Amino acid sequence: MKKTALNRVAALLLSAAALGFSQQVLAHAHLQTPVPGENATVDHSPQQLTLTFTEDVEPAFSGIELLNEQNQPVAVEKMQRNDKQHDQLIVPIGEPLPAGRYQVKWHVLSVDGHKTKGSYSFSVK
Ligand SMILES: [Cu+2]
Q1: Residue 66 maps to a domain
Q2: Which domain holds residue 100?
Q3: 115 Cα–ligand 1 center, Å
Q4: 45: how many CB neighbours lie within 10 A of its CB?
Q5: Is 8 a domain residue?
Q6: pLDDT value of residue 54
Q7: Which tens digits make up the pLDDT trace of 15-64?
């Protein structure tokens, strides 16, 4: 092989290593599966919000807020982390939600020490 070809191989290997590294760095906890789902319309009030993330989260530094159409916080029960699945947060809903559109705002600290946040909506018929 010529020297330039070798350099190219070395550069490829380096960029592959850099890619692997950046993917690790980017492995924050993103919201994977909310129930009720994003933009879902459910027939009845859900009994709980279940948010599953792509990574384990620290409940002490995480929070979930439920807002109604008037952007007012809805009283819900204390958020819990699933004992058997540390990437899942659960918010029990005490009083059934009246029909309407709701927004869920979340922020989490993943076990790798990174903070992420987001929001989504669902509707109750
Ligand atoms: Cu991260």
Answers
A1: yes
A2: 28-124
A3: 7
A4: 15
A5: no
A6: 96
A7: 555 555 544 555 789 999 999 999 999 999 999 999 999 999 999 999 99
